[in-house]
Structure formats: C-alpha cells, structure tokens
Design a protein that fits this description.
The protein is mostly beta strands and 140 residues long. Helix content is 8%, strand content 61%. The strands form two sheets. Strands 1, 2, 3, 4, 5 and 6 form a six-stranded antiparallel beta sheet that branches. It binds zinc ion.
C-alpha cells in the first residue's frame, strides 16, 4: 500500500445538467474550480448508462450498456490527472423500478438529474500506468 496525506482546499455542491453526460459534468466541475485532485459523491437519475467491468484475467474492460432510466442510488469517485486531462474515476450503483441494481465503473450516462458533493484537495494527483494491473493508478 502506498499513501500520502491530502489537505482539503474547498468543498462544492453542484447540480448536473439534464441531458449532459454524467462523468463529463463532474470533470467540468473539477475544471471550473481548478481542482488538481478531488473526491466526490453523487446521486440522482440517468436516462441510460454504460458501465465497464474490468476482467482481471484479460486485463481489459468490457462495456455493459443500459438503455433505460435508472436511479443513481449511489455514486462515488475521484478526480485526478490522466494524460494531461482531468479524469473523474466514477463508480455507481444504479437501480431499476423494482429496486434491482446494476453497478460498476461508470464510463458514461445521460443525466436526468444529478447532485454532487465534491471535496477538492490542495494536492495534485496524477495517474500513471501500473504494470501489474495494466490500469492507470496513483503512484503515491
Ligand atoms: Zn473503476
């Protein structure tokens, strides 16, 4: 395990725009407040979603698409730099009318309504390729 201390710089709440992309909106918030690193939680509803599942044997993501309205029962993630762009690593638990859930790494989703709380850190975090997992992780 690697770790480092972070200090909170500012905290924000935001309402996501209907029809926009969920993750892009969070990255736009991070850019608007000049965040070099942040942690966030969010909730709301989406009109569709594309989740990714990382196959630990194949070391590759497989997309799962949902073309249906879903509640964002819980969404958590962080923002850091990846290839000179702010990347919102976003995971979500999405629910259907009967309460059944699907969950995973959220790549994209069309916002119906969304509320975000973001804690911005004084520090900067940048992802780098990790040989073992073939993922872009934090070299802390
Ligand atoms: Zn993920």
């Amino acid at each position: 395990m690697d770790y480092r201390a972070v200090e909170t710089a500012e905290e924000y709440v935001a309402r996501l725009e209907t029809g926009a992309d969920w993750r892009t909106e969070i990255e736009a918030l991070a850019a608007a407040v000049d965040a070099d690193a942040a942690w966030f939680t969010a909730l709301g509803a989406v009109q569709d979603a594309e989740l990714w599942f990382y196959d630990q044997d194949e070391l590759a993501y497989a997309p799962i698409e949902f073309d249906e309205p879903l509640e964002v029962a819980s969404c958590v993630g962080n923002v850091s730099w990846l290839d000179d762009e702010r990347f919102a690593h976003t995971h979500a638990v999405l629910s259907r009318p009967d309460g059944e859930t699907v969950a995973g790494h959220l790549n994209e989703a069309t916002v119906f309504a969304g509320e975000v709380y973001m804690r911005v850190f004084e520090n900067s975090l940048e992802r780098a390729h990790d040989e073992t997992t073939d993922l872009d992780l934090w070299p802390l």
